[in-house]
Design a protein that fits this description.
The structure is a single chain. The protein has 193 residues and is α+β, with helices and mostly antiparallel strands. The protein is 41% helix and 25% strand. It has a 5-stranded antiparallel beta sheet. It has a two-stranded antiparallel ribbon with strand order 1-2. The longest helix has 54 residues. The relative contact order is 0.12.
Amino acid sequence: MVVHEQSEGMRDASAKQADRAEPPRRRRLWAAAAVTVLVLGGLAAGALLAMDDDGGGADGDGAVSLSAEGTVACASSIAEGRVSQVAPEGDGDRVRVALDVDRSYKPAGGSETRLSFTTSEPDAETYYKVGVRMLVLVSSQEGEAPTTYRAGDPAPSEADGTSAEANDRLDWGRAWVEKALPGAQGLKCSGRG
């Protein structure tokens, strides 16, 4: 009988071990669930950041920046040519600039031979000089300054592959726009804010 009690005691010990084995299995399940939640949360956060990179996001000073494709999508006109006229506009600080267009990127192959826009940039009358060759992106967003790439200015030192072959800012801007145009096709401009 003592043997029987020992085997019963052994059975009780085995049952206790099985009971003890269950919590680690549950802990592993909970740990796996927690890891899954963290991974999915990280993926969701990454997706949100990627959307900000593609469609726009606020930077430190509250200004909103767009990706290259978003900037091209939000441009009403993109053209390259020579500045032909710079004149004050009205009583305010606005300046009207005219560009004799050699190449229209947006609308693609456009027939416009002159692009005219206004800007209130503080140095507009000195920056836009008659005869200077430049690439201009005119935003569809009212009151927003145009984005320009002027011949002779140094190319940006951004590491996106376009600056390595650029002779100046105009070359860089041309490569940047040409790279962004396909991705901007069909994008709707939701604005900058």
